[in-house]
Structures are given as structure tokens and as C-alpha cells.
Amino acid sequence: MDTSFSGFEERYVRAGGFVTRYLEAGDRDAQPVLLLHDGAWGGCSSVSWGAMIQPLAENYRVLAPDMLGFGGTDKVVFLDRSTYQFRLVHLAEFLSTLNVTDSVRIIGSSYGGSTALRSLVQPSPLRVHCVVSISGTGGAWRTDLFRDQLGRWDGSEEDLMRVVNLLTDEFPGIDGHFQERLFWARKIGHYRAMKAPTAELPSELRPQIDDPWPTQLIGCKTPVMLVKGERDELLESDWADHIKGAIPHAQIVTLDCKHSPNLELPKTLLSLVEAFMKD
């Protein structure tokens, strides 16, 4: 199914056995850019990247999939493995299905940024040219506000607006953004896909997870940019310094925004990202 948007196409493909919704724009012979959306309620490609796909497509082949459990992609989660690992495998299958053989430039927002950073841990199913992580820490250094507020939603429009207000200040188009996020948040299966991994377990059944993040990144040579919001209340202010401790060559950029500069400051972010990816 192809649906025309402003400057890009919505498509569906079966990747790794799962129906996968994605947005595409740009010359198919250009270098590929993979955009990974946030993991908040209703997160998906069009919610995170609607303002940036078309300008990025002037120089790149832009691919923005909905990850498993989100948007128009199958509402599948695996509860016996890392939340990042099974999605990275699916993303690799997605790229293979589209015959993308070049290494990819990955730009991720929030959970998508964390997934992008996790793609650098070897062995990885993805071939990565560079990574831009926007407010994505790899899973650590979340504030109490993040833990207490971002993971819950009562299904109402009012409560979803509370979530949006944690991510961003007012910006042109926020009403359309909210309606898009609400549409996908109410898709059958999304709520359960979001809640299942966080279900409370009896103490005897809680797994002992050995995840010495971010030491797994030590020795990584891939170019990395870390974008943080100066007014982001969801992450500890020094989260990017922890990543840079493992990857000394990582660039840190601070913008005057909350958690999601891809929503608030897309033009500013675009200029920074394009300059970084050309290096």
C-alpha cells in the first residue's frame, strides 16, 4: 500500500516475517539514512520525523521504519531478550528486504537513539557508517520524572498531551503531531506491546541482567554525535559525558530545547546532522 505524503511515501513490506510500515524518500542510489523514532506512546516514523525526511532526502535515500510494536508495524515484542536486540535484528532484515547493501547513517530520537547506540555493540546485525543519538542514552541515566511519568498513559487525549509536554515545548504543527501520535497510540495491540515488557514480576522471577553499559562501546571507531536538550528533564544532564567516556571521539551538541529537538528545532538539528554526516 502506497500513500502519498508531503515529499515522501508510506509503504509496507514484510521483513523478517513481520509486516513493517516505513516512510521512504530520496534517490534510491543515494547513501542510505535510517531514521529511528522515539519510544513514547504512539511513537512511529511519521510522528518523529515528518519535518526532517524531505530535506534529508535532497542528499540521501531516507528510510524511516516503524519498529516492532509501534505504528503500522506488527505489534510484536520478545520478553526473553533485550528490547534493543530483537529490534536491531528486525531492522537488519528490513534493510536486507529493501536490498540496502551500503552501511547506513543512523539518526535516532530518544529510544531510537538508544537503539542506534546499541547497534554499535559488536557483533551487530547492522553495518553502520555513523550514528546520531538524539536524547538516546542506551537505556541508562533516566530521571525519576522519566521513570514515573513517561511510561504511563490512561488512554485519554488529555493524558497523552501530558506525555507530549514532557517531550517538547510548543512548536508549529504541534496539534498535527498530537493527532498523529494519538492515532497510532490507539492502534490495536500498541498499548499491550508497550506495557508487557514493564509488567511487574515476582521477585523470584526477576532476571539478573548483566549489562555493563556503556563499556561495550570501548574501542568503537564509528563516528558518533550525541544531541542533548538543555531543558530536558527526562535525562540526567551528564548522560552524554558517560557515553563519551567510552567513545572519546564522540561529539556532544547541546540545544536549547526539551527532549525532542527533532520536533522543536528540526531546521537547527538538520544543519548539524548534515554537517556531521558529511565528515
Using the alpha-carbon principal axes, give the shape.
globular
Please report the total strand number as a whole number: 9
Number of domains: 1
Number of discrete helical segments: 11
Mean pLDDT: 96
The CATH architecture is: 3-Layer(aba) Sandwich
User: Structural class, judged by helices and strands?
Assistant: alpha/beta
Low-confidence stretches: none
Gap between N and C termini, in Å? 36 Å
CATH top level class name: Alpha Beta
- Characterize the biggest β-sheet: 9 strands, mixed
The CATH fourth-level homologous superfamily: Alpha/Beta hydrolase fold, catalytic domain
Q: How large a portion of the residues is in β-strands, by DSSP E?
A: 15-25%
Draw up the topology in text:
Blueprint: E1 3-4, E2 9-15, E3 18-25, E4 32-36, H1 45-49, H2 53-56, E5 61-65, H3 83-97, E6 104-109, H4 111-118, E7 128-134, H5 144-150, H6 157-167, H7 174-185, H8 190-195, E8 224-229, H9 239-246, E9 251-255, H10 261-264, H11 266-278
Parallel strand pairs: 4-5, 4-6, 6-7, 7-8, 8-9
Antiparallel strand pairs: 1-2, 2-3, 3-5
